[in-house]
Design a protein that fits this description.
Elements (H helix, E strand, L loop, with lengths): L1 H17 L6 H22 L21 H31 L7 H11 L1 H21 L7 H19 L1
Helix pairs in contact: 1-3, 2-3, 2-4, 2-5, 4-6, 5-6
Length: 165
């Protein structure tokens, strides 16, 4: 539970920092794909021996910030920060339109970028979810909640379907 709070605190701080940055939907999509691919390749490299070091610490063992598990966790957090930035940019653009301001077209550019990279996104996302499921099955006390994985899969599917409309 504390790890979830820690992650949420980092995400909120990151969102505040990122909110001031320039909005570029195409770049955001490319960065999110790159982060997924980085996570997947790092996971593959770490899991070659069938063990993710640092995921299940025994009593008395110290947490290592550079453990394989923590490195994967950091990459996943960075990916989720990118997704949160995309969602915040879309929300901000819609709020501006509702206030009578001109749209910056972020959502439309995002949908076009998603459509142009659809196959690459689906492949990277499927592997990401598979890897998260492996971590979930491997972990004993620091389980990744299966409902969150399912919600992520459903949200990604909805975004892909929405871009097709």
């Amino acid at each position: 539970m504390n790890k979830i709070r820690y992650f949420l605190a980092i995400a909120v701080l990151s969102l505040l920092t990122i909110a001031c940055s320039k909005q570029n939907a195409v770049e955001d999509v490319e960065l999110s794909i790159a982060k997924l691919n980085q996570f997947n390749s790092t996971f593959e490299n770490f899991y070659k021996d069938g063990v993710i070091e640092g995921i299940n610490l025994k009593k008395g063992e110290k947490k290592d910030a550079n453990s394989e598990y923590n490195q994967l966790k950091k990459l996943a957090e960075e990916y989720y920060e990118l997704i949160n930035r995309i969602n915040s940019n879309i929300k901000e653009d819609k709020e501006n339109v509702n206030k009578g301001k001109k749209s910056n077209g972020y959502e439309e550019k995002y949908k076009k970028a998603i459509e142009s990279k659809k196959d690459e996104i689906e492949k990277a996302t499927d592997l990401f979810i598979t890897n998260l499921n492996i971590l979930n099955n491997y972990s004993e006390k620091d389980k990744i909640i299966e409902e969150e994985i399912q919600d992520f899969a459903e949200e990604t599917t909805k975004e892909t379907e929405a871009s097709n409309e």
